[in-house]
Amino acid sequence: MSHPYKELQEQAYLANMQLPALGLVLFTFGNVSVADHNAGVFAIKPSGVPYDLLSPEKMVIVDFDANNVTNNGRPSSDTKTHAVLYKHWAHVGGIVHTHSTYATAWAQAQRDIPIYGTTHADHLTCDVPCAPPMHDDMIKGNYEHETGFQIMNCLNERKLSYEEIEMILVGNHAPFTWGKTADKAVYNAAVLEEVARMAYLTETIRPACPRLKDSLIKKHFERKHGPDSYYGQQ
Amino acid sequence: MSHPYKELQEQAYLANMQLPALGLVLFTFGNVSVADHNAGVFAIKPSGVPYDLLSPEKMVIVDFDANNVTNNGRPSSDTKTHAVLYKHWAHVGGIVHTHSTYATAWAQAQRDIPIYGTTHADHLTCDVPCAPPMHDDMIKGNYEHETGFQIMNCLNERKLSYEEIEMILVGNHAPFTWGKTADKAVYNAAVLEEVARMAYLTETIRPACPRLKDSLIKKHFERKHGPDSYYGQQ
Amino acid sequence: MSHPYKELQEQAYLANMQLPALGLVLFTFGNVSVADHNAGVFAIKPSGVPYDLLSPEKMVIVDFDANNVTNNGRPSSDTKTHAVLYKHWAHVGGIVHTHSTYATAWAQAQRDIPIYGTTHADHLTCDVPCAPPMHDDMIKGNYEHETGFQIMNCLNERKLSYEEIEMILVGNHAPFTWGKTADKAVYNAAVLEEVARMAYLTETIRPACPRLKDSLIKKHFERKHGPDSYYGQQ
Amino acid sequence: MSHPYKELQEQAYLANMQLPALGLVLFTFGNVSVADHNAGVFAIKPSGVPYDLLSPEKMVIVDFDANNVTNNGRPSSDTKTHAVLYKHWAHVGGIVHTHSTYATAWAQAQRDIPIYGTTHADHLTCDVPCAPPMHDDMIKGNYEHETGFQIMNCLNERKLSYEEIEMILVGNHAPFTWGKTADKAVYNAAVLEEVARMAYLTETIRPACPRLKDSLIKKHFERKHGPDSYYGQQ
Question: Which reactions are catalysed by this chain (chains A, B, C, D) (predicted)?
C-alpha cells in the first residue's frame, strides 16, 4: 500500500460510503472515484466488494490511462470510463456511477429527463441528457473506454459544458454524475435520482406536460449558481 | 446573537428538524419559519445549511420586510416569501416550504389536487389549489416577494381564507403550508404529501375518478374542525 | 382508572403500537380496538393522541352501545363503528381502521380490489369488497354508527361471512379489518395494504388483467385455512 | 435435534434472515432452503414462523423426496417445490421463494420481465421467464410438487439452463430464485425485485420500449460471467 495516496483513498472511501446511506445502490451496483489532477491519478472503489467490507486502504489508485498504480485489488469494472473523463476534464474532481432506480429507468427508456420544475432548474438549465446506446463495434471493443467518449460526445453535440451540466444518462445503462469534488458528484447523483422520480410522477399526473418556461429556469439556476447567487452561506 | 430571540430560534430549530424526520426533504430542499407577531419578526432556517449541522443559534431572525435582524448568517433564499405572508396574515405563526416528492409533482404538472377522499376532507374542504406560474416580469423582478403575492392572489381569486386553507402548490415549483403554529404548518406539509400521493394512486386506479360528494366533505371536516367537532381530546 | 380492564387496555395498547411499526399510519390516522365479549366492552385508542404518547392506561373502555365506561379521555372518533360491529359480530375480538396509502387509494376510487394472485388468495377467496359511499341522510345523521351498518350491509348483499372475509374498503374513506384477535386484525390490515399495492402494480403492468382462476383460489385458501390446511405449526 | 445437520441449519437460518433485512418479505411470505447434495437433504424454514422467532435449530431438515428428517416442526408449505428442484438440479445449493412486491406483480400479470437494461443483462441474458399457471388437475393434485415441474418445464421449453438462468416467475403466484449457494439465491431474489421494479418504471416512461440490443446483453453478461470476466476480485 503506497502512503502517498492515503488521503485520496480516505476521500474515496468516505464518498463511496455515502451511496448506500443515500439509498442509491443495491449491493455493489455503483462506484465513486476521487481524482488528484496534479498526481495524475484517482482512487476508486474495488470491483465487486460489498460496501460494508470497504475500507480506505482497499481503494485502488489508477492513473488517467487506467493503469493500476497500487495493485491492491482490481478496480471497478467501470474504471476506464472514469479514467477517460478525468483525462479530458481537467476541472472534475469526482465521478459517480450508480444504477439508482428512477434514473436508470429513464436510461432504459432512452429518454432525456424533461425539465418540469424548479427542483430540476436549481441544478441544471436543460433536460438531463440521455446519450444514445453505442454502436456495436464500440461495445465489442474497449467498451468502458468508449462509454467515456459516448458521454463526452453527447455533451459536445448538444453544446453543453461539463462544468455546467454535471449529470448524464447512458442509454440502456444508467447514470453518471460528476463535480469539482467527489462530494458534489455524490450530491448530484442523489439530486438526479429525485429529479428523475419527480419527472416520472409528473408525466403520470399530466401526460404531455409542458416544460418549465425559460424565465423560471434562468431565475432558479441563477439563485444558486449565477454571479449574483444568494443561496447558501457566503 | 441577540438573546431576546432565543426561544423563537429554539422553536424554529425544532420545527425544521421535523422535516427530515418526516421524510419531506432531500438535502436542504425545505425550510420552516416561526413568527412572533408582537415582535414583528420570524426565525428561519439559514440558507443551504444541511439539517444535521443546524442548531438553534444558527436560525436567522428576520423582520416582516425581510430585513436580517440578527445577521448571524444568510436566511433561506425563500425568506421574502415568508416575510410577505406574515406581513399580511396576522394569524399565521409558522410557514413551511418543501420540495416533497408527490406534492412537487402535482405542482410541476400545474394541477390542483382533487379532493378524492376523507383523508383530504379531514383537512380541507376543497381541492388543494395550485397557483399558476408567475408572469415573466414578476419572475425577473423581486421573485420570492412576488411568490408571496402569487399565493395570496390565488386564495383571493378562489375566495379561500388562509385561516381555513393552510396549504397551496406554487405551479412549476413546490408546496407551501402554514398554520397557527409551526408544528401545525409542519403537520400540514406531511398531510399534503400523503394526500398528493393518495390522489396520484387514485387517478391511476380509476382515471376520471369522481370527487368526494359534498355531504362527506362537510361531515369529515366538521368532525375535526366544526363547532361540534369530536376529534381529539377536549 | 378501572383495574378490571387493565389487561384489555394492555392488549389494545400493544395492538395499536403495531400500526406505526408496520408503516400503516401517518400521525394519528388509524386505531385498533380489542373486545371482551363477556364483559360487553372494548378498549380503543383515545382520539387524536399521537402514537408515541400512548400508554396502556390511556386506552378508553367503551361498551357495545358506544358509552364511555372509563371516562379517561375521548375515544377514537370512529368508536361507534367499532361498537356496532362488535354488537353484531360475536366472534370478532379486534377491529382495525387505518388510512394506509394503497388501500385508501382503492377506497377513494370506489373499486373492489380484484383477486389477481395467490398472495390475495392465501387470505380471502374473493375480491376485497368496497362498500359504496353512504346516502346523504346517513352521513348527516349518526355517521360512524351508520358506517358499521354500511360495512355489514355490503357483506350481506354479497353473501359474505365476516368470519371468512376479514377486510373491507369503505368507499371514499379507507379500510377496516377485523379478526378473532386484535393481532389477527392488525395482520389483516398489513396484508390488505400489500395486496392493494400488488393489485395496483399488476393493473399497470397489464391493463384488463384476468383474475386468478378458481382452482388456484381454492387451493391457496385451503392450504392456509381449510380442514386439511398444512400451513404453520400444528 | 440431530447434530449432523447443525451447520446446514445455521446456513439456512442466516440465509432466511437476509430476506427481511433486504425488504423482500412481509410477515412469513418467503422461505430459503440450503441443500447438502452428498447427504441428500436440505434445511428449510419452518412453516408460518415469524422471522424474529427463528433460530438455527428450528430449521427443518427434509430429504429430496420431501420427507421430514428431523421432525422438529412442519417445514414451509412450499417444501415439495424445493425438494423436486434439488432432486433434478444437482448443482443448486440454495433456493429462495418470496412474494416480493414488484416481482409478484409481474407474476400476477403473467408476463415475462423484458430485458430493458444492463442491470438486467449483468445477471441474465434473456427476459425473466414467467411460467404459465398450472392446469387445474395439477393444482388439485400434488400442487407444490407440480410447481417444481412447472418451473423445470418452463425452462426446458425455452431451452434455458438452470445453471445460467437462476430466477423465474410462477404465473399468478410469485418468484423463485436459486443458485450454487443460498447466498447467491438470496442475492438473485433481491436483484430480481430491483429488475422487476426498473422494468415497471421503464414501461411507464416509455410504453412499447424496445429491448436491450444483443451486443449490450452479451457485453454486460460476459463482463461478470464469461471466461474473460473482469468484475469482482480474482
Answer: L-ribulose 5-phosphate = D-xylulose 5-phosphate
Low-confidence ranges of chain C (pLDDT < 50): 1-2
**% helix, strand, coil for chain C, step of 5:** 45, 15, 40
A233 and B49 within 8 Å at the Cβ level: the answer is yes
Interface residues of D toward A, Cβ cutoff 8 Å, are: 116-119, 187, 190-191, 194, 197-199, 201-202, 204-206, 209-210, 212-213, 215-216, 219, 223-224, 230-234
Which of A123, A192, A198 to mutate against chain B (most B CBs within 10 Å)?
Answer: A198
Find residue D96's DSSP bridge partners: D32, D177
Closest Cα partner for D171 from D186, D195, D185, D153? D153
- pLDDT of A226 reads 81
User: With contacts defined as CB-CB under 8 Å, which chain A residues touch B110?
Assistant: 206, 209-210
Q: Residues of B124-143 as b/e, b for ≥16 C-beta within 10 angstroms?
A: bbbbbbbbebbeeebbeeeb
Which chain A residue's Cα is nearest to D234?
A74
- Residues from chain A that touch D210, judged by Cβ atoms under 8 A, are 110
Backbone φ, ψ for residue C205 (5° rounding): -70, -35
**Length of chain C (residues):** 234
Whether residue C160 contacts residue C71, with contact meaning beta carbons closer than 8 Å, is answered with no
Q: What is the pLDDT of residues A42-99, one digit of tens each?
A: 999 999 999 999 999 999 999 999 999 999 999 999 999 999 999 999 999 999 999 9
Helices first, then strands: H and E counts in chain A: 8, 7
CA distances from B30 to A137, C131, C165, D74 (A): 47, 40, 44, 52
Q: Which amino acid is at C16?
A: N
Indicate whether B68 pLDDT > 70.
Answer: yes
Measure A63 CA to nearest chain B CA, in Å.
Answer: 33
Q: Report residue D215 as a C-alpha cell.
A: 451486443
Q: State which amino acid sits at residue B187.
A: Y
Three-state secondary-structure class, residue C227:
coil
Name the amino acid, one letter, at C192: L
pLDDT, one tens digit per residue, over D106-125 is: 999 999 999 999 999 999 99
User: CB neighbours (10 Å) of residue D164?
Assistant: 12
Residue C195: helix, strand or coil by DSSP? helix
Work out the widest C-alpha separation in chain B, in whole angstroms: 56
What stretches of A70-227 adopt beta strand conformation (E)?
A: 94-98, 130-131, 167-170, 175-179
pLDDT at B2: 47
Cα separation, B2 vs B12, in Å, equals: 15
Residue B228 has pLDDT above 90, yes or no: no
The predicted pLDDT at position A1 comes to: 46
DSSP-derived 3-state class of residue D145: helix
Q: What is the DSSP string of B125-178?
A: SSPBPEEPPPPHHHHHSSHHHHHHHHHHHHHHHTT--TTT--EEEETTS-EEEE
What's the average model confidence in pLDDT over D35-40? 98
pLDDT tier at D227, thresholds 50, 70, 90: confident
pLDDT in tens, D57-105: 999 999 999 999 999 999 999 999 999 999 999 999 999 999 999 999 9
Helices D101-108, D182-205: axis angle to 10 degrees equals: 70
What's the number of CA atoms in the CB half-sphere (13 Å) around residue B134?
A: 25
The dihedral formed by the CA atoms of C11, C15, C18 and C24, expressed in degrees to the nearest 10: -170
Burial letters B165-202, b for 16+ CB under 10 A, else e: bbbbbbbbbbbbbbbebbbbbbbbbbbbbbbbbbbbbb
- What does R_g of chain B's alpha carbons equal in angstroms? 18
The distance of Cα D234 from the centroid of its chain, to the nearest Å, equals 27
pLDDT of residue D234: 75
- Does C3-225 carry CATH code 3.40.225.10? yes
